[in-house]
Structures are given as structure tokens and as C-alpha cells.
Design brief:
232 residues; 21% helix
């Protein structure tokens, strides 16, 4: 689950992204180059739904439960006979700030926390222009609109609702990727060299672009590796 940046709920079926450098989210716009996912009413797997600040148990910096060893006293009858020996037991450590009278452990009850589908087949709102078998991207209202590349539209499920396949990266064609890479070169020579690349080199460029989108390469590192391919 993700917290909204303005503290207000976001309805289901909207593309969302991070709000600038924050870990909080907002409705995505057409100019956003990174999409987290689509707000969902029926997530198959729901994670991060518990609020660690009011958890019953203590957790460490990796969100793992902290355990402690406690002594369970012996149990005796009214005559002093030992029924159960004293013993040691390992259990989760109770959070000293936990208040059992407050039901705040679940973020499901907080409107500013939203379930977001990150991958798979998801329902999203659309402006009526999307067509099955084509692609879509979010518009400035965070709903899907027809696009030449983006997320695959699987089928229309309503007048303003479609089912899309959400992957970690946008789907693009080789030609469109070549055009984008060629524009980076800003020269006719760069375009000609890119078009004449062998299939293996094209696949390598695609992998580099995806690695960069995922944040594993800086822009400078991407340009260096791309130039190596062009010069090979």
C-alpha cells in the first residue's frame, strides 16, 4: 500500500506515480516518465498494510519481529505441589507504546493509504479512445488514453474502463526505440548507424534502456555504454 501525498484518497482505476522526491503518491500525468501502477479495489496480494508505528510487536530496521526470552513461572496447586515446572519461552517482544484500545494497526482503515496494483492484468479508467490490441498511457487526469506505445490494452470492459497488462516497463517497437536512440545522437549519421545495427546490437540497446529505466544506470553511464555499442 502507498500513502497519498495530499492525505486524500485516490479512487480505483487511476495510474499513479511518486510525488517528486517523496515516497508518497499522486495521480499520474501525461508528462510523467515513471508509473508505479494502477489503484486497485481487489489486489491479489496486499503488502505493507500494517502500520509499524502502532504495531503490537517490536520490529527492527528491516521490519523483522524482535524476539525475547521470558520466564514462565511454575504452576502450583493449592497445596503447593508443582503442576508445571518453571520454563523459558521465546516470544515476540511487545511494543511498549502499543495501546490495545486503539485500532490503528491496519492501513486499510485509513483513506490516505491506497492499494496499488504493480504488475499483471488490471482494470483502469479510460477516456474512450483505447482499443483492444493497441497501447495506452495515462493522460493528465491519470486515466488511460490511446497511444502508439505504452501499456497493452487487452480488452474493453466498460464504456470508460479497460483491462490492461501492466509490466515493469512500457512496451515499444524496435523502430520507435531506434528513433528515440537516434534523436539522442542528433545527427543523420547516428540514425543511419542505428538502423544498420544487427539484431543482436538492437537487443543489447533495448536491455540497456530498460536497465536505465529501472535506475541501475545513470544517464552518463547509459550514454557511455550506448556509444560502445555504436562503435563496435
Amino acid at each position: 500500500m502507498f500513502e497519498t501525498s495530499n492525505g486524500e484518497p485516490i479512487g480505483v482505476g487511476y495510474f499513479v506515480t511518486f510525488d517528486e522526491g517523496s515516497e508518497k503518491i499522486r495521480v499520474a500525468h501525461a508528462r510523467d516518465d515513471y508509473i508505479i501502477g494502477i489503484t486497485s479495489s481487489n489486489p491479489a496480494i496486499l503488502s505493507d498494510s500494517q502500520d509499524p508505528d502502532c504495531s503490537k510487536y517490536v520490529i527492527d530496521e528491516w521490519n523483522r519481529p524482535v524476539y525475547e526470552e521470558v520466564t514462565i513461572p511454575a504452576v502450583k496447586d493449592h497445596e503447593g505441589n508443582v503442576l508445571t515446572e518453571e520454563r523459558k519461552k521465546t516470544r515476540k517482544k511487545i511494543n511498549p507504546n502499543w495501546d490495545p484500545s486503539k485500532n490503528c494497526s491496519s492501513r486499510l482503515d485509513k483513506p490516505e493509504w491506497v492499494a496499488v496494483g504493480l504488475v499483471g492484468k488490471l482494470l483502469v479508467r479510460d477516456d474512450g479512445t483505447c482499443q483492444p490490441g493497441s497501447y495506452c498511457k495515462p493522460n493528465d487526469d491519470g486515466i488511460a488514453t490511446k497511444a502508439s506505445q505504452g501499456y497493452r490494452v487487452m480488452k474493453r470492459t466498460g464504456e470508460n474502463q479497460i483491462l490492461v497488462l501492466l509490466n515493469s516497463t512500457l512496451e515499444t517497437t524496435n523502430i520507435e526505440q531506434l528513433k528515440q536512440l537516434a534523436s539522442d545522437q542528433q545527427s543523420v549519421e547516428g540514425m543511419e548507424r542505428l538502423i544498420n545495427l544487427k539484431e543482436k546490437s538492437i537487443e543489447q540497446l533495448e536491455r540497456l534502456a530498460k536497465i536505465k529505466e529501472q535506475g541501475y544506470l545513470t544517464e552518463e553511464e547509459f550514454q557511455i555504454e550506448k556509444q560502445k555499442l555504436l562503435d563496435s
